[in-house]
Write a structure and sequence with these properties.
Elements: E1 19-21, E2 28-38, E3 45-54, E4 59-61, H1 63-71, H2 80-94, E5 102-111, E6 114-119
Antiparallel strand pairs: 1-4, 2-3, 3-5, 5-6
């Protein structure tokens, strides 16, 4: 198995969400506090903690490819709720899972005194 991004510096080698054979785990949860997107109305940056959980079948998600995937939203205008759904669908597709086997919770850091948590 050869990874495109893992083991290489920078994001220019990003090739999408990569996976590897499941070594026998029943559940996986990955958390990142490096997700940033842009409010589609105000163009202000929104900062998130992303929690991605899944029940793997044959494949597990490679973490560097996830980091690079999340970084791609930096300049994208999207609401938290829509972003949670998009990440869920992309992870399910990459791992050949049913959507019910993936849970994504985005917790938007407070802006204007309001914190948003969206789970898909």
């Amino acid at each position: 198995m050869e990874f495109v991004a893992l083991g290489h510096v920078g994001s220019e080698r990003y090739a999408g969400l990569e996976s590897f054979p499941n070594p026998g785990v029943a559940e996986v949860e990955m958390t990142s506090d490096e997700l940033t997107a842009v409010c589609p109305i105000t163009a202000q940056p929104d900062f998130y903690v992303a929690r991605i959980g899944y029940r793997p079948k044959a494949l597990c998600l490679e973490s560097k490819s996830l980091k690079l995937y999340l970084a791609r939203f930096r300049n994208e205008g999207v609401f938290a709720e829509a972003l949670a759904v998009r990440i869920k669908e992309d992870v399910a597709k990459a791992l050949d899972l049913d959507r019910a086997d993936v849970t994504v919770t985005l917790t938007q850091k407070a802006r204007g005194g309001i914190t948003i948590a969206a789970t898909a």
